[in-house]
Specification:
With 320 residues, the chain is α/β, with parallel strands linked by helices. The protein has 12 helices and 12 strands.
């Protein structure tokens, strides 16, 4: 892991740590009684020294709370989430988040397992046989806040979890005067038609806090967090014609970028199409969501906000 990764994570963790000083003495077990994960499991404060994360957001939250997970899953080609740097130097890879290596997980003998609900539900009983198991569906910003508080509570650090959320909300407020009058869209996939994210998806939701418009719009079923987006034709994308396009990382060439319509998009003509790091796709942890917010603010308003310090291998880049 490069020293630059370590520096970037250290800077974000330092900001986060400032929010923890407001913690007060409370009965953590009593407070935990009112919390449940997204499977309905009551969250109880426990002595968990060995915690496994079947998700990026859980590994992120653990690191922000000062805990290095014994195992972590990921997506893409990374063995563990690269943006978390040296904090995961001793963490074992559990493979893809939707296809966890249960044998390796068992060998790690965790005291607690934390995962994404929709990816772990098919294996929930097997996971529960290994260790106490909590699962969260982290799609929206509110999901992120709730999951962070839940994880912190399970570790006996509920006050610290609440402080992490207050710290981020304070950071959001620092951008309240962003000028606006800019539209953007977040796209994933590599096929002929990309996938666009609705307003409630966490990374897209940050656009609103930066006074930007998400060209993809709101979900037609706002009472549900899933689906959190839709496939969009290039003709529809041209009709929306956002000022900025954020492309989620992919290991394949993007077929839609070869569509004859692509060069006519304003974002393409103006050089405002950016490839972003994989942490944008599962940005519910305290470290990722701060990185996304700061980088998004700079890309939307480069004349106003400074470029955040991020290592080259996770920073956004203009798409060519």
């Amino acid at each position: 892991m490069s020293r630059f990764n370590a520096r970037a994570v250290s800077n974000v963790v330092l900001f986060i740590t400032l929010g923890l000083v407001l913690g007060v003495s409370v009965d953590q077990k009593a407070l935990a009684e009112s919390l449940h994960d997204d499977r309905g499991t009551p969250i109880k404060a426990m002595d968990a020294e060995r915690v496994a994360a079947i998700s990026t957001f859980a590994a992120d939250t653990l690191v922000a709370l000062g805990v290095s997970p014994v195992g972590a899953s990921t997506f893409g080609n990374e063995p563990v989430p690269r943006y978390l740097g040296k904090s995961l130097a001793e963490t074992q890879s559990l493979g893809q988040r939707a296809n966890t290596n249960l044998e390796r997980l068992t060998e790690l003998n965790p005291d607690l397992i934390i995962g994404i609900h929709r990816y772990t539900e098919p294996h929930a009983r097997q996971l529960e046989a290994i260790a106490p198991f909590l699962a969260f569906d982290v799609v929206s910003l509110e999901d992120s806040r709730r999951a962070i508080e839940g994880i912190a509570t399970a570790l006996g650090q509920r006050a610290e979890g609440e402080a992490l959320n207050r710290s981020f909300d304070a950071r959001l407020n620092e951008f309240a005067d962003a000028p606006g009058e800019v539209s953007a869209i977040l796209l994933a996939g590599a096929g002929e038609t990309p996938f666009a994210y609705y307003d409630h998806f966490l990374s897209a939701a940050l656009l609103e806090h930066l006074n930007a418009t998400n060209a993809a719009g709101a979900s037609p079923t706002p009472e549900q967090t899933i689906p959190f987006g839709y496939t969009i034709s290039l003709e529809k994308l041209l009709a929306l014609n956002p000022d900025v396009i954020f492309l989620f990382a992919t290991g394949s060439k993007r077929a839609f970028a070869n569509n004859p319509v692509w060069p006519y998009l304003d974002a393409v003509k103006n050089g405002r199409v950016f490839e972003v790091g994989p942490h944008w796709k599962e940005g519910g942890g305290p470290i990722a969501r701060r990185m996304i917010l700061d980088e998004m603010a700079w890309r939307l308003y480069p004349e106003i906000f400074d470029r955040p310090e991020l290592p080259a291998d996770i920073a956004s880049n203009p798409y060519r």
